[in-house]
Amino acid sequence: MIIDTPRGLFCEAGNFHIDPWQPVERALITHAHSDHARPGSSAYLCASPGATVLRHRLPDAIVETVDYGETISIRDVRVSFHPAGHILGSAQIRLELAGDVWVVSGDYKRAPDPTATPFEPVRCHTFITEATFALPIYTWDPPDTVVTEIVEWWRLNRESERPSVLFCYALGKAQRILAALREHAAEPIRLHGAMAGLTAAYREAGIALAPTERIAEATRGKALARALVLAPISARGTVWMRRVPNASTAFASGLMRVRGVRRQRAFDRGFVLSDHADWPSLLKTVEETGAERVLVTHGWSDVLARFLAERGFETGTLRTAYEGEAGELASEPEPAT
Amino acid sequence: MKRFAALYDAIDRTTSTNAKVSALVEYFRTAPPADAAWAVYFLTGRRLKRLIPSASLREWAVIATGVPEWLLGETYAAVGDFAEIVALLLDAVPRDEVEPDLPLATWVEERLLPLATTDPAAQRAHVLSWWRGLPRTERFLLNKLLTGEFRVGVAQTLVVRALAEAAGVESTAVAARLMGDWTPSAEWFAGVIAAVSAGADPSQPYPFFLASPLEDPPETLGPRSEWLIEWKWDGIRAQLIRRAGQVWLWSRGEELITLRFPEIAAAATNLPDGTVLDGEVLAFQDGRPMPFSALQQRIGRQRQLAQIMRAVPVVFMAYDLLEHDGRDVRAEPIEARRELLAALLPHEGVLRVSSELPESSWEALATLRAESRARGVEGFILKHRGSSYGVGRRRGEWWKWKIDPLTIDAVLIYAQPGSGRRANLLTDYTFGVWDGDDLVPIAKAYSGLSNAEIDELDRWIRRHTRERHGPVRVVEPIHVFELGFEAIAPSTRHRSGIAVRFPRMLRWRRDKGVAQADTLEALKHLMG
């Protein structure tokens, strides 16, 4: 029912693409991250809770919405969106044609997140899953534990008058952290400019977050000495960092599970907080869908496919341009000659 | 081991040098001396001999975690550190046993070292039970100790600084006490932090005194006559010790290399007892140095020594005398030390004195320096008359006036496939230098290695990839290369803040450890 094409995953029976990476006529969008929601398509369809953020990301796009669980028909295909737990409004897309059911997971996680409707397993025959963290070393601690670590890190830095700069993905991760810190923020959390618009979009969509303050142009140095600052990783190594001299730096990502990755990038701390499924969740989810066939998209796709094949699943991999969390570090400047 | 694990976490959780030092100071002040001794041992990069074959550890990890062998292999490609992989995987294994908190010294001496003589079944039972009983950081440290791959990411100089601060002793004294071969114990640690040095181990070398690169024209150093000048030899810096009727040859990396150079060891038995020489091990034939690559054959090879000894004869080119008649003469002026040295050694033979250069003006020296490459040397070493033999690198007294190009020792950190003919080989390398305790990328280089070296490095990289970003592989920082380049300039485009022009690999420095790679600060100095 779905094949990988140069423009993206394509459903011929319904004549639509899912998360295409080139402009198409009709794009069904699992979530608003830039590697899944790209500009230029004629029409977009997403789950209702994700509309605000998607419109923020693609201001010129025509965006239609459908509620979680509501079934619509596109040609002969019955289509519904179901919570994926990845970020606000993220969805798995269920397709049914003549009794055959496929589910495209997009990106998903099973860990609790106050900003996203929890993942719901959807029974299907074919499950298309991500594999961003499909290695058995990737197992997540409960988010509360990680949040406690962040709070403790901030507290220690505050005591020694050092700014705490927490790098994280600007859409989803930042707001998830802000929501989790609602009870813990001693003062407004400062936001890098690139975080501000998306955070406002979350509030507009009704998500309760810790108080925030966008860092004004002139704010620097002493004024931020006790602050927790959220910034995108792209701000690292730029002149922006001069505003937070002597900062303790941290990165919130599943990638931080591996010590060498953190040390290579010279972060003081790495907080293992991911919006993707860890290894046990991937396996549990595959079981819960009841699927006989599993197709794997981005990440450690070969590994997951082989592991499942050894356990009797029919498997395959789909070629996509999705990056998952691995893309988060790619924006750091590369050395040139 | 909890205290040691807490120290490890404290060091690991900051990139600030001061924070690392204060964590170390706190540990050295509060830990039992025997534990502190082992901590110094591990923190300064010393390791236990591998206690258990890695194949066994892999097998037990499969048993403990239920992860199939092939998947463990895939995981290795992502992490590149077996000890860490096992620790991460074990998070999924319940901690259903309780390990009492034993001191580090007890762990090492009563549990780990005896494993070497324990039968495999009992080894397995011990390790599996420890894995089930230890919390996360301690599991990780245990694995590190078992695999002999313990690297903490703290420079030896910081350990010295912290010990000196904790004990209220001069750091030069501490540095000297950490040199050479020693066995960790409470008594040994007491000696390290003691106010007065006791009778030392006869094998113990002195800390090396290092020359700084000369960046300004030599005229800025004042009159030529104030300087003692000799060739900068291109070999292995080493200290030759003749004490207690024995001979030890130490490389600058504090590795004992006596057995690799039997002819030097044999010649040294003719030295009077109580003699320590500083000099250069050189591959030397027909009155001139052979290329460094010739010497590398002597470093790498332990077998067929007789054959390679004939092909690559070596000499010890002495340029300083540190101990004479059992007396430490480092504080005496260089001229006095040279005089004693000249009385001790001839200008030829296996042990010989490096000659002073007679040229009487800077101009004449500049002319002579142009012949450096043809003579197989790296330029000049300039020693200020009257200078004592210090510790570490102290600018102003000793200079190395090296020939072009600018060179640095950098660590291979990333690799990716080349293009065209090299598309299936990882031949595009990125190199880093130290910025504090981290390696920051400073150059990409593609050329300079022989095909055999490229092949060897390619195989090594594939086995030691830590992480992949598309085609780019992050490799374990282990290999040091000497890079040459034409110019260096400030850059805002690079994380390092500098850009180098026409970098290329001059050679693979297998004799150097990563700690000996250059620092970003040293590079910035080159910019002037």
Sum this structure up briefly.
By secondary structure, chain A is α/β, with parallel strands linked by helices.
How would you characterize the overall build of this protein?
The complex is a heterodimer of chains A (337) and B (528). With 337 residues, chain A is α/β, with parallel strands linked by helices. Chain A folds into two domains: 2-137 and 275-325, Ribonuclease Z/Hydroxyacylglutathione hydrolase-like (Metallo-beta-lactamase, Chain A, 4-Layer Sandwich), CATH 3.60.15.10; 143-271, Rossmann fold (3-Layer(aba) Sandwich), CATH 3.40.50. In chain A, 21% of the residues lie in helices and 25% in strands. In chain A, the strands form three sheets. A seven-stranded mixed beta sheet of chain A has the order 7-8-9-10-11-18-19, with helices on one face. In chain A, strand 1 and strand 2 (8-11) form a beta hairpin. In chain A, helix 1 (51-57) packs antiparallel against helix 4. Mean pLDDT of chain A is 91; it is low at 330-337. Chain B is α+β, with helices and mostly antiparallel strands. Chain B folds into three domains: 2-147, DNA ligase i, domain 1, CATH 1.10.3260; 209-402, D-amino Acid Aminotransferase, Chain A, domain 1 (2-Layer Sandwich), CATH 3.30.470; 406-527, Nucleic acid-binding proteins (OB fold (Dihydrolipoamide Acetyltransferase, E2P), Beta Barrel), CATH 2.40.50. In chain B, the strands form five sheets. In chain B, strands 4, 5, 6, 7, 8, 9 and 10 form a seven-stranded mixed beta sheet that branches. In chain B, strand 20 (487-490) and strand 21 (498-501) form a beta hairpin. In chain B, helix 2 (17-30) crosses helix 10 (156-167) and helix 3 (33-43) packs across helix 12. Chain B is globular and about 75 Å long. Chain B starts with a helix and ends with a helix. Classes of the chains: A alpha/beta (337), B alpha+beta (528). The interface between A and B is large, with 33 and 49 residues.
